[in-house]
Amino acid sequence: MAPILSGKRIMLGISGGIAAYKSVTLASRFTQANALVDVIMTHSAAKFVAPVTFQSITQRSVATDTFEFWHDAGRLRIGHVALAHAADLFIIAPATAHTIARLAHGLSDDLLSITALSYKGPMLLAPAMETNMWTHPATMRNVQALRDWGVDFIGPEEGRLASGEVGEGRVAEPEDIFEVACKVIGRGGPLDGLRVLITAGGTREPIDPVRFMGNHSTGKMGAALARAARDLGAETVLVHAPLSVHPPGGVSLMPVHTAQQMFGAVMEQLPRTDVLIGAAAVADYRPTRSSNQKLKKSPENQVITLERTPDILQEVGTRREEGGPGPRLVIGFAAETNDLEANALDKLKRKNLDLVVLNDVTAPDSGFAVDTNRVTLFERGGNREAWPLMSKDEVAQAILQRVVVRLGRLDWKGSQSRERDR
Ligand code: PMT
Q1: What confidence tens digit (pLDDT) does each residue in 270-286 have?
Q2: Looking at the domain that runs over 190-406, which CATH code has it been given?
Q3: Is 34 annotated as catalytic?
Q4: Nearest-CA neighbor of 10 among 181, 250, 183, 228?
Q5: Does residue 334's CB lie within 6 angstroms of at least one atom of ligand 1?
């Protein structure tokens, strides 16, 4: 769930291309997140997908004609433009070359372009077209003009196109559009202007080219934290070991494999990081040597000698203690199987953390791989809070709310105007 979208009004414009069918999934995703979705379709879009499909999904009116009546809050209105003014975000997906050109030139010859021209809030376009149309200088110039006005773009991606050709021009996937929409709508939120770095996933320490030492982390907890930070307006960086989940959109991704690589990526980002959250399960040991060739079976037992990996949070803690540049807030996780509280408190102290989130990884509904977590927070200064079982998204949102409080951003009004300078 994305609480950032609950009660928000999304104006979803659909222009004419085969990719229009994907916007059904997008409309459904927004509706399920409790957003109010008003759909405007161009006449050619309505040839690809019937308006009644969107009506059924959103349970709201769908407009295709300039002089059509809308049902809104029990009233019959002709003012689609007024509805657009009430929108928190205007998305056009798919955005064809023609629609992009009309927007860039301020044309208002159909309902979609009139509404877009009179709208001043955040706008997100997901282009879809043949590669030659996308790379044409006219389209590139139009896209740049819109970018310069503050319009956001997602995609297009490489892939199979309607013509059967493979190239750049495929509309972004609905889930990715949804994720970037959350980011755009969250701009100016309480973490606006801050950089939050999150580690996620389980590191892999190579034994040979085909084997590694790893753990059960999927990256679900870390990805949820990244989404929550992004939705509060933070510039979010996710340093992640291999993930078993779709990486969050609207977040800078830094993929790594080993503890050493994760250490390097975090240290490189550290001077620009305001908040660091370590949700990754980082290997404490690695094989002293990794074979260049696949190890062969032999009758004898094999012994793998291990050495310590660098401890990322401990190094950050030491640098903070020495007064070096470092994050204002450092949060660690403790994945424990026994002596839960004692081990969590030891990590809080030894790694010089502001807060440690303890999860009992022996519980079937908590810790590795599941979608839920039951955590206890231990804050520096002695505060201790046991939270009930929640989804990982809810745990992440609650942790980020704690970050907002600790950074004194509770009454944050936002530094950015919601209106684009057009
Ligand atoms: O990814 P999921 O499947 O959703 O599972 C989530 C999770 C169980 C992995 C997550 O909630 C969690 O508990 N992450 C921390 C797991 C862990 O390895 O804890 P630890 O007790 O070994 O380490 C304590 C803290 O130090 C952690 O914040 C860890 O990221 C950090 N650490 C550990 C070792 C190391 N070399 N460097 C570190 O920075």
Answers
A1: 999 999 999 999 999 99
A2: 3.40.50.10300
A3: no
A4: 181
A5: yes
